[in-house]
Every structure is written in structure tokens, then in C-alpha cells.
Sequence to fold (157 residues):
Amino acid sequence: MSYHVCLVCMGNICRSPMAEIVLRRTLAEHGLDRLVTVDSAGTDGWHEGGPIDERAGRTLAAHGYDGSAHRARRFQAAWFGHADLVLAMDATNLRALRALAPAGAEVRLFRSFDPTAPENAEVPDPYYGGDEGFVQVLDMVRAASEGLAKHLAATLR
Fold:
């Protein structure tokens, strides 16, 4: 049985799909891709069925990642039944997820796995800014993905 991680932001077109794509590659690099399933969602459904934000896709592509297959979806409370770890990109989405979560569900901030990040660090929403915000998000999700992969390697093996 696979360990399941779900990454969550507001609309599932910027931060969480970037994190999903980066985390998948990071897990593969650590030999964990057969042990861990990764997906993403948004707490709101504004963009359901739509592609990744064009700027997020360009940023990923410029760094060797492919986000073209992504389609946005809204997080459903029933998913707590199969998600072992639900990771929010920021405090707003963390609160929304915790309001849906059953007792005992593991819900936390994604950057909590980055050992260089301050306590309660968030992945800021780059949607209303320029391309540089997406590059910053990519750097943050790379660092958190690496920390999470190390954590999972130690826990799952």
C-alpha cells in the first residue's frame, strides 16, 4: 500500500501543482516513487478542470519540469480517508483543511519540512505578481520537497 501525500493551495493552479510536480521528481530521486503517491488540490473550486497557471508552467518548464498534464481540482473532505498527509501552502488553507479534517488527520504546512524555513513559514501566493514570484515558489517547494523526501525515507523504510 502506498503512502499518500496531498498538497493544497487555494485554486490548485500555482503553488500546489508546482509542489506536486517537484515532489514527485524529488521522491523518484530518493527511490521513494513506488512507496509514495502525490497529488494536489485547491480549497476553492474556481479553476476546477483548468490547466496550471501559464506562469507556473513556464517556470517549471524553464527548470526541466512538465506541468502540462495538470488539471485543477477542489479538495474533498472524503479524501482524508486515503490521504496520509495533507500539506497546505499557507495558513489560510491550513485553517480551511483543519476545519474539514477528522480527528487524527495529519494536516500541516508544507514548508514545515524545510529545515531552513522559519517556524510557520508559508509558500506565498504568486498569482497577483510577476514571474519572479513563481521562481521564488519553485525554490521554496524544492527545499520543502527535499526535506519531506528525507523525512519519508526515514519513516517509510
Summary: The first strand starts at residue 3 and ends at 9. Residues 131-156 form the longest helix (26 residues). The chain is about 40% helix and 15% strand.
